[in-house]
Design brief:
There is one protein chain. This protein has a two-stranded antiparallel sheet with strand order 1-2. Helix content is 57%, strand content 4%. The protein has nine helices and two strands, in the order H-H-H-H-H-H-E-H-H-E-H. Helix 6 packs antiparallel against helix 9. It is mainly α. The relative contact order is 0.10.
Length: 170
């Protein structure tokens, strides 16, 4: 039954990719809809610069520059309604490798098979190899995936979030 609902909603969509709803499971669409509703502070169905400013302020980021907000809005091809919002997430997630491929890459760094990597080791790799992380990106990484008290990072959770866009429920 759920796929029919997705197709019906897809046909009724207002802009964006016509197959965007087929990219996600119904539960994921619902979670994105909840996120969209939170961001759309004035409830007009469009995410604006003011909506972004308000939601960022509610999360403690009070000094966001206009240029940063404009850059975020300009990532969309037009006004950000729910279909455009979902399409943008689909495009971001589409570029990720499958979970098993990312997990295999991490496992090379975990010869004991513990499912964790030392924070210092991972940070060194991320700041010195290939597409190097900035200090801000590292800070965001540890905020999203804090190491345990022994300094270990759960890379299985990182892989899950990269490929599914949400934390695994334990």
């Amino acid at each position: 039954m759920a796929p029919k609902k997705a197709k019906r909603r897809q046909a009724a969509g207002d802009g964006g990719s016509s197959n965007v709803f087929s990219m996600f499971e119904q539960s994921q669409i619902q979670e994105y809809k909840e996120a969209f509703t939170i961001i759309d502070q004035n409830r007009d169905g469009i995410i604006s610069k003011d909506d972004l400013r308000d939601v960022l302020a509610s999360m403690g980021q009070l000094n966001v520059k206009n240029e940063e907000l404009e850059a975020m809005i300009k990532e969309a091809p037009g006004p950000i309604n729910f279909t455009v919002f979902l399409t943008m997430f689909g495009e971001k997630l589409k570029g990720a490798d499958p979970e098993d491929v990312i997990l295999s890459a991490f496992k090379v760094l975990d010869p004991e098979g513990t499912g964790t990597i030392k924070k210092e080791f991972l940070q060194e790799l991320l700041t010195t190899q290939c597409d190097r992380f900035s200090a801000e990106e590292i800070k965001n990484m540890w905020a999203a995936f804090p190491p345990d008290v022994a300094g270990n990072v759960d890379y299985k959770n990182i892989c899950y979030v990269i490929t599914h866009g949400e934390e695994k429920e334990e």
